[in-house]
Design brief:
The complex is a heterodimer of chains A (about 750) and B (about 350). Chain A is mostly helical and about 750 residues long. Helices cover about 65% and strands about 0% of the residues of chain A. Chain B has 2 domains: about 220 residues, Rossmann fold, CATH 3.40.50.300; about 110 residues, OB fold (Dihydrolipoamide Acetyltransferase, E2P), CATH 2.40.50. Chain B is about 25% helix and about 35% strand. Classes of the chains: A mainly alpha (about 750), B alpha+beta (about 350).
Chain lengths: ~750, ~350
């Protein structure tokens, strides 16, 4: 048995025999009241509870650990491997079985509980001890497999694979499966497929009343129509802009670049909020039109037009980012070839440029489509009677008519839509990439656009850019006036309400926003490194290791990219509200939600970064007798630093701006900035909301600026290595993909 | 010199499959200790996969691999006493030359001073004294290659592997570096396996060449044997140029065969062939332009003639097909359409055993 395995055993015993097995509320290191009765009592260890007969069903887990410990000094590798595999696998199985079987009163799985000797038993959610034990058992299993020669006997590789699989299973697949389960049961928890079918085909979801009569259409149709419109418009705007920037002498490239950062650091609903202040019934523009031209104030903004406008403004820069890459990827040599063969400008565009652009355009459309589906903030703020799936899910969970089953059904429909789009993207576009720029020898000047395209594109993007500027102006100014649109007296009132600091007795953060602001920064700061580590580790395993089931893991990871935040939020609240994993209402669930919501970002930047590092570097390290962990630590990680930084920055920023997933998970104690702002908007306190939003935006802009400045251009030796620095270190370009 | 001394490498019926694709098919060979053996073949023939199986970067699907008599078939690269010089050199871009060279002993935990010492010794050996603090991006291609060699030598491996080490160097440098590699191998008495697709390079450096084609070994042997007695048409054509002609063996006696090459009659070593249809490989320089015809000559007409400095490349249309002829010396150019007679030199005309 290698020393690493002994350490794992030690961890296992620490979790099983020493640490509190269950989750202890109010656990603190300053006051030790929760320790009462230790090693029994509510903070008791599994060993003590099992031996004292309070929780005999925990005994088999200890037996598994004992079995592994018995072979501590054994030199018979094959024997040790077998023992480790069995004790790890059975230990995990029994641990999860008792966790799910024996839960709160009236829950759990009675027959399984009886089988495990815990009939009628009751237990709370698992805590530190239990999680440490799970971790140790998993590692024992992985080490056993490595001793068997799996992954060439590399402990680190098998362990990493095991950890990633467990985490994805526990925090992505288990919650999503819980949704499916919830959809199939009625309010009392009994299996009711009829209720499922009734809910699924409800006219409020699929009704087409708006076509024939004057009633609202089904929420599924609303969502689809909105998403398609949003996808089409954002793609057209993005394309127009990309063509203008790259193919004409249009000035303002830097400005456009800055414009693409904005949606990343802007919480999605803030655009909607600014639109209300501009075009709402009491908005600046509406008031102006009413007072000067007698145009009556109307509520046109609340509904499809408003939501669509907000989403287009929010997501068009993303389409632009995707398409600028696509346009850049078309080798000018091809167009020059076409022209030397006698094609006119327009013919060249139609027969060469356009066909090469098509896959990128489809990609941009699907991105806009999915973003619109997943968007929660704008429909919430601007939707009015126009309901979409994400808001309907929200109200089914937090509204007066709490309906878990309905929320689950709606979440399934939304998930089906986004997975469908994702599937189309993978199947149809997966292999198609027409990047024709291949490095050397691709000189040549890009063909200027045909004139009619130039005019068309300019006509489209000038209003867009202008409106975006006005909106950010409103966001920045809005917090400094009494009431945007009604009373434009300059005031600091909103900032004082939110961010006042009382210096009279030391420093006291008096403002109402501080609490949520600090929580947000804290949670984001904790989850960002975890996201980066798990994401990069997954990327490393997917790109650099060969193991059975890699394809499946890759598919599972990809799939998790397509889960909308709202669905993940509902899934978490359904799955983690009851034992064995009961973490709702804690800060932990926010961290977990952010980590797994942002994991795609980490994986993507990891894969992008790793694809720029030649595999032969890893192999060179291996042939020089380095194990995979050493290789990862000494060779891959230093070269991956830009990707690491971008993953960190981006997941931090996303955590600060996310709404959809976490709005279900916040609690009074752990409130987040975005949830707080949404609350203020719903209460009509626009001034405070907009002031808080601009604080967030400025805070993140400064943060990103500082990090970019600090990391700067990556240097290797005294020469710059361009390949590594250009795309990977740039958190902004990462935004395009997610 | 090396602590464990050079070790032999033996492949016993080794195959490598990726799904339905067979990259290496039932290959057996031996690399004797202290010898340089080249794996030669066109791209995609499985030579690099074979090399990577020696390194342990690929684990063979079937068969047995022995290094120094020990079975290492299932051992990972990190557990084998083998080092490799990569085609791209694979120098760590974030480490200096010294750090690159000291990487092996450092990760082995030999201590900083010891690692530094070992690295400096090998860097001096490849002539890179004074370059320790440079970064790979500040070195020329040839220097980078030396760093890669020094790094591979530092742990004094039982077997050293080269994967197309010269492919990133320019033509002039290539000749010099290949001689240096050969010298190093002989001075340090290393076992070296060397992959290349360049037959001239292989002929120049090897003790033994293993020619691979379509995942199989086409022929193995000393450079001279391969060139002069190719076992099949592939080897004849791949090592050096050859005109492959369908011929008839008319009679065999005393190990000599009377062969009809079109209208010409030639006596060649029989190489175990029986009378009947066969193939003959003729080196372009073994076809001679004769003044007068005869029973041992082939009439033909010049199709093309190109001047290449020290020789002429000539295409000649004959009754057995178009033949490629090289004429050394300062001959006059031949006009297309000129009638000529082709004779056969004493060497470079070989019967090929049927496949």
């Amino acid at each position: 048995m290698r020393s690493a395995t002994r350490l794992v055993l030690l961890l296992g015993w620490l979790g099983y025999a020493v640490l509190p097995w269950y989750f202890v509320e109010g656990m603190a290191l300053t006051r030790l009241g929760w320790l009462e009765g230790y090693p029994l009592g509510k903070a008791g260890s599994a060993l003590a509870l099992a031996l004292s007969g309070q929780a005999p069903w925990l005994l088999p887990v200890g037996v598994a650990l004992t079995a592994a410990t018995a072979y501590l000094g054994s030199r018979d590798a094959a024997r040790v491997a077998t023992v480790l595999i069995w004790s790890g696998a059975l230990g995990l199985l029994l641990l999860f079985a008792q966790g799910f079987a024996i839960a709160l009163e009236g829950q759990g799985i009675p027959w399984l509980a009886a089988l495990l000797g815990g009939s009628g038993g009751v237990q709370r959610g698992m805590g530190g001890g239990a999680f440490l034990t799970i971790f140790a058992l998993l590692l024992l299993l992985c080490h056993g497999l490595a001793y068997r020669g799996i992954c060439r006997g590399d402990l680190f590789t098998t362990s990493s694979i095991g950890i990633v699989i467990l985490l994805i299973g526990l925090f992505i697949f288990y919650p999503v499966a819980t949704i499916l389960k919830s959809a199939l049961v009625d309010q009392d928890g009994a299996f009711a497929p009829a209720a499922f079918i009734a809910r699924f085909f409800d006219s409020s979801i699929w009704g087409l009343g708006c076509l024939t009569a004057n009633v609202n259409c089904g929420v599924a149709w609303n969502t689809l129509v909105l998403a398609v419109l949003c996808g089409v418009i954002t793609t057209l705007l993005g394309l127009a802009c990309a063509l203008l920037i790259l193919r004409t002498g249009m000035p303002g490239k830097k400005v456009m670049r800055a414009l693409t950062i904005l949606p990343i650091i802007t919480p999605p609903f803030v655009i909607g909020l600014a639109l209300i202040l501009l075009f709402g019934r009491a908005g600046v523009v509406s008031t102006f039109l009413y007072e000067w031209f007698d145009v009556p104030r109307s509520r046109w903004l609340y509904g499809l037009p408003g939501v669509l406008l907000a989403q287009v403004l929010a997501f068009a820069p993303i389409a632009f980012l995707v398409l600028i890459g696509v346009v850049q990827g078309i080798s000018p040599a091809l167009e020059e070839a076409s022209q030397t063969l006698g094609a006119k400008r327009w013919q060249t565009f139609r027969t060469v440029t356009w066909p090469l652009l098509k896959p990128g355009i489809a990609n941009a459309f699907l991105l806009g489509f999915v973003e619109s589906m997943a968007d929660f903030g704008n429909p919430l703020v601007l939707g009015g009677n126009f309901e979409v799936l994400s808001t309907k899910i929200f109200f089914a969970v937090v509204g007066a008519a709490y309906n878990q089953g309905q929320a689950a059904v709606l979440a399934i429909i939304l998930l089906a839509f986004t997975l469908g789009a994702f599937w189309v993207q993978q199947r149809w576009l997966g292999g198609k990439s027409y990047t024709t720029v291949t490095g050397k020898g691709d000189s040549g000047l890009p063909t200027p656009l045909p004139r009619r395209i130039t005019w068309l594109a300019a006509a489209a993007i000038v209003p867009w850019v202008a409106l975006t500027f006005v909106i950010y102006l409103v966001i920045l100014v809005g917090g400094f006036v009494k009431s945007m649109g009604r009373n434009h007296t300059p005031t600091l009132e909103h900032y004082l309400t939110g961010f006042a600091i009382d210096f009279s007795n030391g420093i006291y953060f008096q403002g109402s926003a501080w609490n949520s602001f600090f929580t947000t920064v804290k949670v984001a700061a904790i989850s960002a490194p975890l996201t980066a580590i798990i994401g990069l580790l997954t990327a490393y395993l997917l790109t650099r290791q060969k193991f059975a089931g890699r394809g499946t893991l890759e598919f599972a990871t990809m799939l998790s990219f397509a889960i909308p935040g709202t669905v993940l939020g509902v899934a978490y609240i359904l799955a983690f509200n009851v034992p064995p994993i009961e973490i709702t209402g804690t800060g932990l669930i926010l961290v977990v939600a952010f980590v797994f919501r942002n994991m795609p970002v980490g994986v993507r930047s990891g894969i992008a970064g790793l694809s720029q590092i030649d595999k032969s570097l890893d192999e060179a390290s291996t042939t020089l007798r380095a194990r995979s962990f050493t290789t990862l630590w000494r060779v891959v990680l230093p070269l991956l630093r830009p990707a690491l930084v971008s993953a960190l920055v981006y997941s931090f920023v996303r955590s600060m701006t996310a709404v959809s997933a976490v709005i279900f998970l916040v609690s009074a104690e752990y409130n987040l900035a975005t949830a707080y702002i949404v609350g203020r908007v719903e209460a009509g306190e626009f001034g405070l909301a907009i002031a808080y939003s601009s604080v967030l935006i400025v805070f993140m802009a400064l943060g990103i600026g500082l990090i970019q400045l600090g990391v700067g251009e990556r240097r290797l030796g005294r020469r710059k290595v361009v390949a590594l620095s250009s795309s990977v270190s740039d958190p902004i370009s990462q935004g395009a993909a997610s | 010199m090396t602590k464990a001394g050079p070790a032999s490498v033996e492949f016993r019926n080794v195959s490598m499959r990726y799904g339905a694709v067979t990259a290496v098919d039932n290959v057996s060979f031996t690399v004797e200790a202290g010898k340089l053996v080249t794996l030669l073949g066109p791209s995609g023939c499985g030579k690099t996969t074979t090399l990577r199986m020696i390194a342990g970067l690929e684990i063979a699907s079937e068969g047995q691999i022995l290094i120094g008599g020990q079975d290492v078939t299932r051992l990972s690269a990190a557990d084998r006493d083998v080092s490799m010089v990569f085609q791209s050199y694979a120098l760590f871009p974030h480490m200096s030359v010294l750090e690159n060279a000291a990487y092996g002993p450092t990760v082995k935990g030999l201590g900083k001073e010891r690692a530094r010492e070992m690295a400096l010794e090998k860097l001096a050996l490849v002539g890179l004294k004074g370059f320790e603090n440079r970064y790979p991006s500040e070195l020329s291609g040839g220097q980078q290659q030396r760093v890669a060699v020094a790094r591979a030598l530092v742990l004094e491996p039982q077997v050293l592997l080269f994967d197309e080490p010269l492919s990133n160097l320019d033509a002039k440098l290539r000749r010099r570096v290949r001689e240096e590699i050969r010298e190093l191998q002989q001075n340090l008495n290393l076992t070296v396996a060397y992959v290349t697709h360049d037959q001239e390079e292989a002929l120049a450096v090897s003790d033994k060449i293993i020619v691979m084609s379509n995942a199989k070994i086409a022929q193995q042997g000393a450079p001279r044997a391969l060139y002069e007695e190719p076992a099949n048409a592939f080897v004849a054509d791949f090592i050096g140029d050859a005109n492959l002609i369908d011929v008839t063996v008319e009679a065999v006696a005393d190990g000599r065969a009377d062969v009809a090459i079109g209208p010409a009659r030639v006596s060649l070593p029989a190489r175990g062939l029986a009378p009947g249809p066969a193939k003959v490989a003729i080196r372009p320089e073994s076809l001679l332009l004769l003044e007068a015809g005869g029973s041992a000559s082939l009439p033909g007409t010049v199709r093309k003639c190109a001047y290449l400095g020290n020789h002429l490349d000539i295409m000649i249309e004959t009754p057995v097909g178009e033949l490629f002829v090289i004429q050394y010396g300062h001959r006059a150019m031949l006009e297309p359409g000129t009638a000529v007679n082709l004779g056969f030199a004493g060497s470079g005309v070989t019967l090929i055993p049927p496949a």
